[in-house]
């Protein structure tokens, strides 16, 4: 929301009214889309830096309205996050992801981990852990296979509650990853107190690893921190061989990015996996 200085005159412009209208329209359309199965999962491989072995996949949501062009998640997830719609969408993504893991085709290499993005409102919803537990009972193959990606903001919103919740999630055999790590404003002290397994280094650092010495230094520091705290690290958004070489030099464990593969629908992922051998 825009902050308005006290005493300033506020005019609700035509433009603002239209923006509200547009968000409302989008939210309603998204609700329908969920019912009409217009949402699909894409998968992006995560590879080991040292030998390109497949370690996992990240699940990324896509919306294909019939007859329209696909709408990227950056456009509709923030709208969904304004209401409990994000919980319905999040539950759907978790359910679909677990079903995929449970029904993985025989003879096809199953990625070690399947990472799912979880929004703040969903993570903090009262019955989140209970529902996750029920899901794992329904799909037992997902135990020790599922990773939840949450952002720092999600955790710091309520550190005490987050800690309890994360311990319960860990007890279910689900891994926890901090997404977009390094972009927050906070100290990293909270990491000591939380049962986190993995950090994902934000693309904004990786992008400049070879052009800005400061960014490379920050990445080196975060990687050392991860060693001390015994956390796995995934570098996001690796696009060039040079970036990969720099990550290798800094002993980064894993990466994902267009260099290796873009997010893909399931049939394409299967073809990609088969080709990897
Ligand atoms: P994220 O979790 O940080 O996901 C990484 C984004 O970077 C994805 O964008 C991915 O397609 C993109 N990406 C991966 N490799 C590269 C690369 O080499 N270069 C560039 N330029 N981009 C790369 P996408 O799929 O558009 O998703 C955007 C954001 O939407 C995600 O950011 C995540 O915050 C959110 N999102 C996506 N799916 C879900 C979901 O199922 N639930 C929730 N709550 N959020 C989701
Ligand atoms: Ca993510
Ligand atoms: Ca991320
Ligand atoms: Ca991001």
From TrEMBL:
The lineage of its organism: Bacteria, Pseudomonadati, Pseudomonadota, Gammaproteobacteria, Aeromonadales. Residues 23-277 form the EAL domain. This is GGDEF domain-containing protein. The chain holds residues 709 to 985 of 985 of the full protein.
